[in-house]
């Protein structure tokens, strides 16, 4: 058997676990072990004459040869190219997220600058879903959710597809240790990586629903009411960017064969489509959701510009000038007596301050609630 170098590399990435999951999902029945547990024999349910052997370990010296023999049989039975079958086997352990553009050149290419933006916004789209999977909210700050950032770093970029411009995102997912029939009876305790893929589809579907409601006379509440389903300013903006790049957008998910979805989740991977006219609505939704979001555990640094305290009140209100979103802004903070004294001292000495809290807008200004970890920045000069 002549095996090309590219096929060898791809075959080496295929695991026996992935092969077993593929065969079980495509009408093959496991008969039992082969020759002292060196492999397992499968027979096609529809044609008992067809059988394949799955090596028990990828460490066997002839693993690639045995695997390619299996691929040759599958290609013949399924009437597909062997390279396509081999690719599907290599994807058995990942959730495949497909981001497809509607508009390309005649040869299915896109401008280089658009390609760079496509990859960047695809990453932002996935990161928004990962942040929502941790804690849904209107807006996420870059780098604040370390778990979401770590997840995105493990996602791989797959090959594009002919006939259109598609970004294939390969998201590894922990295999299930339960049989599909018993998994249906278990609580929905999906691992984080599967929850991210589900939240991505949920958020996109909710965004499409909210856009359609707006087009029928609705308002921003259609988006705000669906934050729990994965809508965020980040998701809306990344979606709008992708729509503008490609003149429309389709996103779909194919679930990892080694972790089949629960029965009520089987339709979650269907294509979510957006038209060019959806982009302006999503952009405006992103802007409004950004303005109204409370930012938890936000650290600000600046100088005290105003002190206010009623003689009858132990607490005092302080206005701090700090840079927020690239602009010098006024932030009001209420302090308890002890911290108010420290702030007063910093103001009198014209020193900067740094503190953490939950930042949110009040009209055109900002307010920092639950102030903590106050630090007076001593002027070494």
Can I get a quick summary?
This protein has helices at 5-12, 16-25, 63-78, 82-90, 112-134, 146-154, 180-183, 192-215, 221-224, 233-246, 278-291, 337-348, and strands spanning 28-34, 39-44, 47-55, 94-101, 156-157, 166-172, 249-254, 272-274, 295-308, 316-324, 327-335, 352-362, 365-377. It is α+β, with helices and mostly antiparallel strands and 381 residues long.
Q: Could you characterize the architecture of this molecule?
A:
By secondary structure, this protein is of the alpha+beta class. The chain is 39% helix and 27% strand. The protein has three domains: 5-90; 94-291, no CATH class; 295-377, Beta Barrel (OB fold (Dihydrolipoamide Acetyltransferase, E2P)), CATH 2.40.50.140. It has twelve helices and 13 strands. The protein starts with a helix and ends with a strand. The mean pLDDT is 88.
Please give a handful of descriptors for the protein shown:
single chain, 381 residues, alpha+beta, OB fold (Dihydrolipoamide Acetyltransferase, E2P), 3 domains, 5-stranded antiparallel beta sheet, 5-stranded mixed beta barrel, elongated
What is the string of helix and strand elements? HHEEEHHEHHEEHHHHEEHEEEHEE
> What is the 3D form?
elongated
The overall pLDDT average reads: 88
Widest beta sheet: strand line-up: 5-6-4-7-8
Termini separation (Å)? Answer: 76 Å
User: If you compute it from the alpha carbons, what radius of gyration comes out, rounded to the nearest whole angstrom?
Assistant: 27 Å
Strand content: 25-35%
Largest sheet: 5 strands, antiparallel
Number of domains: 3
Question: How many individual β-strands?
Answer: 13
* Share in helix: 25-40%
Tally the helices: what do you get? 12
Pairing-aware structural class of the strands and helices?
alpha+beta
Low-confidence stretches: none
